[in-house]
Amino acid sequence: MLNDIQDVLREYKGDDELTVTPETSFADLSLDSLDTVELVMSIEDKFGVSIEMNGDVNTVGDLMTAIEKAKQA
How far from 58 is each of 5, 8, 16, 20, 27, CA to CA, in Å? Predict the structure, then answer.
């Protein structure tokens, strides 16, 4: 899942060398709230889920957790 998220981020940022870890925050990636919403929409499309953006999704790891929760719902 991390690789898939990294691929989406690479495409979104236009940086083929971008590397992320679960601890990477959206602030580390210089993503503002609008960027984050657009990114989450791309992730939702890729994984076929709907993610609740409630302020608890601040890192790639948080996003992975949200995807897992959405898959179980």
Answer: 14, 16, 22, 13, 8
Domains of the chain from N-terminus onward: 2-72 (1.10.1200.10)
Mean of pLDDT over the chain: 91
* Span 53-66, pLDDT tens digits: 777 888 999 999 99
The reported pLDDT for the residue numbered 44 is 93
Residues labelled catalytic: 32
